[in-house]
Design a protein that fits this description.
binds D-mannonic acid, alpha/beta, 47% helix
């Protein structure tokens, strides 16, 4: 079969949507760091919708770790397919908004030069929680992070995302070019303000006046991003090849739902994202909090409990009525009362989430969501827990999510098999659980001592400790499936 690329585009099967603009006439206005599946199912699609009318906002993507996306997309002239799936079928569309992908390791100078050039007015990021080299509990730059230490020693050839931003901004500052807006599209709490804090801090460690300029002059619009994007499998590649009539080395599978709420703070201009369906607002934080606590908090809870109960996919866990009751109860009883969202029907939002989780066509692995829990727990579960503890309210279901994470990161499942725990703190967590020797109380004490996850307050909270340890007891005694059943009664 022919490979998807600019010259084969005309031969793609009829009915498959392809770019409605002349790709030879578009020019880059955005550099995107972290060109993974999420970006390609989300922002790149919004931009694709706009390029016909706004041809100078195309994207140059960069991968900071592995060149695998570049290797897949280069022979395809940046083209790839998104396949939107639900029970009714799979709908392919070819996206053309990514002009080029650069590998930050081997093409660092080209990437930095582009970021420093005036045509780039937005640098957006999806580098995952851990890519910001920060302390997840406080949201501050982690100055002891090895990549940050490296970047401070080699500021003009940095490795980390914050280091790349600082160097590109420094070059613009020196050349008198207005700064680009830095737009994080990661699931961090207050992502705009958090990234501003991290980047200005790193800049000031390099040079105090650069730090001041970044803090005063660079815009860091906050965003709430939402679309569920499971990782692509070989079976997905075969399905897409069949549907479009060409091979695509890296198609993206996703759901019909998509949402993007953006703080309208782009002093140097922006594409008309609202014309592609994004909501431009003054204050994005309530939306972020709602999404992180409702969607991602439920996701992480289902990921750990579901994995332990033997569910490979989220939709499998949603096939168990006890799981549905748990997640519904978690959102209704424990999360929704912590949210202040006038004008939003939270009950309808919850019901829509339950439907999205149950999408049988979306093969979303519990293991995929379980990754990097140490970076995710604070904004997904612990913030809600803090709010409820302060108000003297119950945290029964929220604390079960935390207990399931503690049980999961031990690295051994309920059948005694190893779990492939992917987390920047995996080694430390394994050592803690080895030391605990299967004792729930000791496991809790050890893990709650990770202050970069739990801060320095939760370890002293007796209600929190008692609830988590009680759930851990149950997870050890009767397993995850039965624990969920007992809780929902
Ligand atoms: C998931 C998210 O992997 C995870 O941690 O919870 O990627 C989730 O699918 C997205 O945030 C949905 O918008």
């Amino acid at each position: 079969m022919t490979r998807l690329c600019a010259t084969s585009l005309a031969a793609i099967k009829q009915g498959v949507a392809v770019p409605d603009y002349d790709r030879a006439a578009i020019t880059p206005g955005i550099v995107h760091l972290g060109i993974g599946a999420f970006h390609r199912a989300h922002m790149a699609v919004y931009v694709d919708d706009l390029l016909k009318d706004q041809p100078n906002w195309a994207i140059v993507g960069a991968s900071l770790r592995r060149p695998d996306t570049k290797d897949a997309l280069e022979p395809q002239d940046g083209l790839y397919t998104i396949a939107v799936r639900d029970a009714a079928g799979t709908h392919p569309r070819v996206i053309g908004s990514i002009l080029k992908v650069l590998d930050a390791n081997s093409e660092r100078e080209e990437l930095l030069a582009l970021m420093a050039s005036p045509q780039i007015r937005i640098v957006s990021l999806t580098v995952t929680e851990k890519g910001y080299c920060h302390d997840p509990a406080t949201g501050e730059l982690d100055q002891r992070h090895p990549d940050i230490a490296y970047d401070l020693a080699n500021p003009t050839a940095p490795k980390s995302a914050p280091g790349m931003l600082v160097e590109a901004l420094a070059r613009r500052h020196a050349a008198g070019i207005t700064p680009f807006a830095v737009m994080s599209c990661d699931n961090l709490p207050s992502n705009g303000a958090t990234v501003k804090r991290i980047v200005s801090r790193l800049a000031s460690l390099r040079d105090a006046s650069l730090g001041e300029w970044v803090a005063d002059k660079v815009a860091f619009p906050g965003t709430m991003v939402d679309r569920i994007v499971p990782s692509t499998t070989d079976a997905d590649r075969a399905t897409v090849a069949e549907l479009i009539g060409a091979d695509d080395a890296w198609p993206i599978m996703t759901e019909p739902f998509t949402q993007w709420v953006i703080e309208d703070n782009f002093p140097d201009g922006r594409p008309a994202f609202e014309r592609a369906g994004a909501q431009l607002v003054e204050d994005v934080e309530p939306f972020e909090r709602m999404k992180l606590r409702m969607l991602n908090g439920s996701h992480s809870t289902m990921a750990y409990l579901g994995y332990l109960a033997g569910h490979e996919y989220v939709s499998d866990a949603m096939g168990d009525p006890a799981f549905v009751a748990l997640i519904r109860g978690l959102m209704s009883e424990e999360v929704m009362p912590t949210l202040d969202m006038p004008g939003t029907d939270l009950g309808a939002y919850r019901d829509q989430l339950l439907e999205r989780f149950a999408n049988p066509a979306l093969k979303h692995r519990t293991w995929q969501i379980a990754m990097d829990g140490s970076q995710k727990l604070p904004q997904r579960l612990l913030g809600t827990i803090r709010d409820r503890l302060a108000a003297g309210q119950s945290i029964e279901r929220l604390s079960l999510g935390v207990a399931a994470w503690m049980r999961y990161v031990m690295g051994i499942d309920e059948k005694g098999e190893n779990i492939d725990v992917r987390d920047p703190l995996a080694m430390r967590m394994m050592a803690i659980s080895a030391g605990a020797g299967g004792d729930p109380e000791e496991l809790y004490e050890g893990l709650v001592g990770l202050t970069e996850v739990f801060g320095d307050d939760l370890a002293d909270n007796e209600v929190f400790g008692a609830d988590v340890v009680e759930h851990l007891d149950s997870l050890f005694d009767v397993g995850a499936a039965e624990t969920v059943r007992e809780i929902v009664g």
